[in-house]
Amino acid sequence: MAEERIEFELVSPERLLLSEAVEMVVVPGTEGEIGVLPQHAPTITTLRPGVIRVYEKGAVTERIFVASGFAEVTPARCTVLADQAVPVAEIDRAATEDGLRVAREDQTDTKSDDERATVERRIAVAEAMLAAADG
Amino acid sequence: MPSLKDLRVRIASVKSTQKITAAMKMVAAAKLRRAQEQAEASRPYAERMQRMLTSLAAGASNRDGAPKLLAGTGSDETHLLLVGSADRGLCGGFNTNIVREVRRAIEELRGKGKTVKILCIGRKGRDQLRRTYGDLIVDTIEDVSKPRPRFVTAEEIAARVLKMFEAGEFDVCSLFFARFKSAISQIVTQQQLIPFAPSDGEDAAETENSSGVVYDYEPDEQEILADLLPRNLAVQIFRGILENNASEQGARMTAMDNATRNAGEMIDKLTMTYNRTRQAVITKELIEIISGAEAL
Do the bridges between strand A69-74 and strand A85-87 make them parallel or antiparallel, or are there none, so unpaired? Predict the structure, then answer.
């Protein structure tokens, strides 16, 4: 079993970002992180803003930030459909902080529920992004 | 018979036209390659989304309380047609072909007594439809593929369509675009977006191998569906825009290639006439000189 690997795919609407066989991936599901090993039960889940971690020999080899999306897990495969995906090393701290500040300013003068929801989402994504860059 | 000067001017003008069409062809070829790459790069996402949704939809559509995006509003009185076209002309029959298909669909729907609304994505489609169906056009979205198609744009369009749907402004939504087959062949396609139609044709093989699997859902099925369906709308629109963009460049490349060749033929013909006329003028002058000398 130890040699068994799982096909991990990360896709964004604009392109296929990553496709490789890995030992384990940890995916930030809405209801908690899901560690996916080979022979995982088939699952479909939504994602919250967070970090996907790819494990190799018990150590993290890749960390990728996703804003939101879906993950489909089958015994042999784990497919992540992400709206926005950035490797943690490439997160632009200054730009994110700017974005967060602008979003906070916008929050004070929102009117409709729709607008409020969008702004809150922006704040959540930016905060998660900063947390990812720190951790 | 045109004078020598007229001919020279015409040849020069056709030559400069040929230069322009040849340049446009090269530009279109370069853009086509990029557009094609982008269209191909976006395919995995659309396919996997379709696969997930098909397996979810199979379970959810029979039950009561299925989302409206999946089950429909229960009537099909008002149709919204999303018409994808180019923002620029000079690309052969590309826009006309799409518009012809749209007209046919409109007439068919009207024949059945349905109401039709049009949302144009691209300037040229609107320009052609405005004359006959001006009162049906809700709005036009321009410059979707400038400088290149972005997913955010598709999301905005999808959000707009959803808002209209929630306000009860239409029951059925279809997207018209030209599917890119090759540089010389684009197929005008009508795709139903709302209510969601399970995949057929090229995606079918992809969905089959997962259809037997029973999934665990987290949070639950309803919530995932509620999230997935609007997203799918954006993805499908994005895909339509990309395909359309590739088709437009392909059509333009072919049209400009033809134009360049025609200009070449025209130059040959004009040059031939020019030379004949020139010879005729020389002969005429000679005859005049000779007969003048003989008369003495």
Answer: unpaired
